[in-house]
Write a structure and sequence with these properties.
The structure is a homodimer. Helix content of chain A is about 45%, strand content about 20%. Chain A is an alpha/beta fold. Chain A folds into 2 domains: about 5-75, Arc Repressor Mutant, subunit A; about 85-195, NAD(P)-binding Rossmann-like Domain (Rossmann fold, 3-Layer(aba) Sandwich). In chain A, helix 1 packs antiparallel against helix 4 (about 65-75). Chains A and B meet through helix 1, helix 5, helix 6, strand 9 and helix 9 of A and helix 1, helix 5, helix 6, strand 9 and helix 9 of B. The structure holds a DNA duplex.
Chain lengths: ~220, ~220
DNA sequence: GGCTGTGAAAAAGTTCACAGCT
DNA sequence: AGCTGTGAACTTTTTCACAGCC
């Protein structure tokens, strides 16, 4: 039980959590692995295996109690508290992120918006005012254990990244299409639209190349 | 050689491609797996294994010819032609995507912007005018083998998705934080900010829980 | 000597098959 | 009977170790 939860499982738990909250909002009290799996595009056996790493929270012959399972997943994921989020780079994407519902999800709170452009500093976005990037270290100091979201221009990215890390941040969500160097103890996740498109292009091309055999695994 | 390339490899090839193009732009002609690996945050042995699935394009004792390797990876990924991209949902995120450099990357061409809001229809974003969503089937018909990028509100997502699929699209990049049901032959990739944040929260929490042992694998 | 290419070993992740509760 | 929990089998991915070529 105190054995580490596989990273693949960790990546799927938020998916289950969302589906469970939807069920809970609809007043559903109990769910089977089969039904939950169907709403998360995962096989029921994989779902059960995943949940088994957290403990034995289901009831055989019955299913899982929705609210209890929500609580357990949230606890394991560290979502029983709110995490401060600092958004760096308020360009097109940064502005969209600042207003994006994803951050409003239970568990996260945007604490600061930072940009280097004097024209943007002072602008109000949502309930936050854009601050100058020279406030970076101060803001990070005021928000221990914050998650930094990087949406700055490519050429500034490594410099800003180094400053974030020096200031003590150990979790970064990187939207910059560059591989940024960080020490091992820093967890960095990368979102790269261009890469996702390229992966889709590969599969699209493959479909065109072999138009007949749709499901060969050879 | 005509054996399938592992999906894990496919997901990394675009990363190598970007690094290689940077080298090429700087006039570098030759690169070793060690150096290329360093700029992509991948181990050199993994990089070589990945490249070996494409064929033997390196020279022992020397390294890989940058431009030749670019060509080979682009060919395998299907990036020697331009893929049409259709962007559906021009909210905050959609607007950011429309202007985002990622789409301008060699290999993709935004062919249409669609939204249901009459206020947005007719607006100019970049070199494209926003069209009404009722043009969806027509636009898809005019752009065979296009990639659809979905950034519509959650409640409209499944309906729009069904229409896209009926119209013949088989590659979708989904920014909507919902699991959308699609037939098996449709390739769907999902980008979900909230899930990425939750994964970071897990690791951040774990660091707080065990502050001393930074690298235990137990 | 230096660097690629690749079988073989190890690790991680998924699926199967069924035991175990209710 | 119904549905969870899980060892075991299988598949995929990563890493290792070193042969092969320049």
């Amino acid at each position: 039980m105190p054995k580490g939860i596989p990273v693949a499982t960790i990546a799927r738990l938020p998916l289950y959590l969302r589906a469970l909250r939807l069920l809970s909002d609809r007043g559903v009290k109990l769910v089977s692995s089969e039904d939950l799996a169907n709403s998360t595009a995962v096989r029921s056996t994989k779902l059960r295996k995943d949940l088994s790493y957290l403990g034995s929270y289901g009831v055989r012959g019955v299913g899982y109690e929705v609210d209890y399972l929500i609580h357990q997943i949230a606890r394991v994921m560290g979502l029983t508290q709110d995490w401060p989020v600092i958004l760096i780079g308020i360009g097109n994407l940064g502005q969209a992120l600042a207003g994006y519902g994803g951050f409003a999800t239970r568990g996260f709170k945007v604490r600061a918006l930072l940009d280097s452009d004097p024209m943007k500093v002072g602008t109000q976005i949502g309930d936050q005012e854009v601050q100058h990037i020279n406030q970076l270290e101060k803001v990070i100091g005021e928000n221990p254990n914050c998650i930094a979201v990087l949406a700055v221009p490519e050429n500034a990215a490594q410099t800003i990244c180094d400053r974030i890390v020096s200031a003590g941040v150990t979790s970064i969500l990187n939207f910059v299409p560059t591989v940024l160097q960080v020490p091992d103890e820093v967890e960095m996740r990368k979102v790269d639209l261009s890469i996702e498109l390229q992966i889709l292009a590969f599969y699209e091309q493959r479909k065109l190349a072999q138009p007949t055999e749709l499901e060969n695994r050879a």
